[in-house]
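My main concern about presentation is that the manuscript never shows what a single data entry looks like. For the editor and my fellow referees, an illustration may be useful. For illustration, here is how one protein appears when written out as sequence plus structure tokens:

***
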Amino acid sequence: MSLLKVEDALAQLLADVSPTETENVSLHNATGRVLAVDLKAQRTQPPFNASAMDGYAIRADNIRELPTKLQIVGEVPAGYVFPDIVHNWEAVRIFTGAPVPEGADAVVMQEKTERDGAFVSILQQVPKGNNIRPAGQDFKEGEVLLKRGTELTYRHLALAASMNHAVVPVYRRPVIAILSTGDELVLPGDKPSDGQIIASNNFAIASFAQTIGADVLDLGIARDDMTEISTTIEKAVAARVDCLVTIGGVSVGDHDLVQDALKTAGMDLTFWRIAMRPGKPLLAGNLGATRVLGLPGNPVSSMSCAILFLQPMIRKMLGKEGPYRIDPAICASPLPANDYRQSYMRARLGKDAEGRAVASLFSDQDSSKLASFAEADCLIVRPPDAPASKAGAPCQILIL
């Protein structure tokens, strides 16, 4: 199977990915979730003509000369309704948010009045509608105010609550199972023997998937043993996860058993090996309803592939638009000509005197080096066969 271009591989990966089913969640649990349907207002807001100030509800036509003395016939705080009508030469003490009494058509703020027992002197002429928020000023019942596909933030949740929705229909979080493989791996805190290293990719990929909006099932570390790998794969399929992510073991070495184990389990291979650096041995397929993404074992390769392929898959499952964004920048370093593979190069991000984004390349791009990846702000994206370029030339970046 020949090497696929990145864009072709991504198109194949996402071709039949659909949003997950819908579930209802309370507003308390809806932060970051994606709305699955258009949301209509279930009430009008405000539901009545409401006072925008603390003051006095009056008839504006009564105020022809200043000061004008009116009789105070009652008061209405927020949450209550005045039971009578405001007649000529009467005023009702009113507070912010309270319904404006029938008969009144303006509110005079209290700073423009002087009270004397049962009377108040109005010191300012006001037009009709003054300091009144009319019913429906914000929105009306039946209006669609939140569209399907909205990623819900605190602002959207405030609106949904005002629309009188206690729960909202959202796409279910996809469940991503993560399986690390390799005799060389031990968990942090364990003591590695000679020749072993500490596993890190599983934590990075799990955190990344959760950040995007997925739930994670950690399948631990499987040794380079066909039976152990196959048994763990069966656990993922039995759990009906949306995607099984394997880390390592997808290349062509004698101990790279993951692809054979997946094929034995019945995987339909979508593609294997991408024309990209790092991340060439990426694998994708399907095990029935469970999607499979086989990431390389080198840390930077693994995380780069997660950004480029796992992220768009999860986003599409969540009903979100677009995989990731590529931005223009200036490259601070000269770059050699690129080969047939699309390259993703770690860089620091800054700005020049004109405010343009400037990417400064790390000198060592070895795919095993985590320290530079943690320090990087972006990846410089170099297309296949890109010619050599000088420092200060334009480039494209993927912000981390």
